[in-house]
Amino acid sequence: MKKIAVLTSGGDAPGMNAAIRAVVRTSVFHDMEVVGVFQGYQGLIDGDFKRLHVRSVAKILGRGGTILKSARCQEFLSPEGRKRAHVNLVKAGVDGLVVIGGNGTFKGAMKLSRETGFPVVGLPGTIDNDLCGSDCTIGFDTAINTVIDAVDKIRDTADSHNRLFFVEVMGRDSGFIALKAGIATGAVAVMTPELGIGIDDLVAVLQAGEQSNKTSSIVLVAEGDPNGGAYEIAKKVKEKTQRYETRITVLGHLQRGGAPTCSDRVLASRLGVAAVEALRSGHSEVMAGIVNDRVALTSLETAIETKSTINDDEVRIARILSI
Ligand code: F6P
User: Fold this and answer.
1) Is 3-139+260-305 assigned to CATH 3.40.50.450?
2) pLDDT tens-place string over residues 60-81
3) Using CA of residue 241, residue 244, residue 245, residue 248, what is the dihedral sign?
């Protein structure tokens, strides 16, 4: 393997730049050339490639976002789009591809590799932490710390005014951010797609808190909760009881930005090295992750299709500690 390409795709995540840097530097370390592909899969289809050198990735380790830009590309969903991408990779003399992204990114990578035999290795880059095969995804730790910082501030107002706040966090299909941040901020309840807490259960929890002299409360809501987002849930609670003075905050995209934490920088660096070394040793259609503090390769198919499960022990302690 003499030349590899790297791209970021899907929602950006803090630490993607650290991963790009690690991919570039590891390749150069092993006397390989690297090209960066801009705008994710769209850049593969358009041939938007640029050679990256050791110094092209200087001073990006601590920067949020992605220097390669990112996109969700419709054209790559079709076999024709993937064919064009493959033609461009071959034309540019690329021997292997590293893709950094989430579920959708890996689906595209797997199809490209299956249809053309082109070697592809994935790195889990998403704040949602919803990929099987890595204890943490790149960006998750930074995102939960951002949420903690925001909720701690909201707590000051909730407390000063004896209010009930509904804070909505990201997680279209999963509640990892909501659960972890809920424990870390002492939320009275956490609403996620996996937990299936109904409005009546929530009202019962709020009333129990009131009976034990709670004067303010914060409910963390994952955006994908089946009861609806924070606005919807607050409305449904109001329909059941008028007792609380409620406010709603949707944290939105501020969760995706910012300088990566130490954990995310180190995770991204380890995985960037692992991806290049996996390609060099002939692996393809795998995701490099960290499991029990060791690099682990998981097939892209498993990473995509195995539903990552929320930690039961965390659910239990969240309930115990929120009384
Ligand atoms: O996939 C990560 C994620 O942050 C989801 O939790 C969220 O629903 C989505 O991205 C938002 O994506 P966009 O930036 O396209 O609105």
Assistant:
1) yes
2) 999 999 999 999 999 999 999 9
3) negative
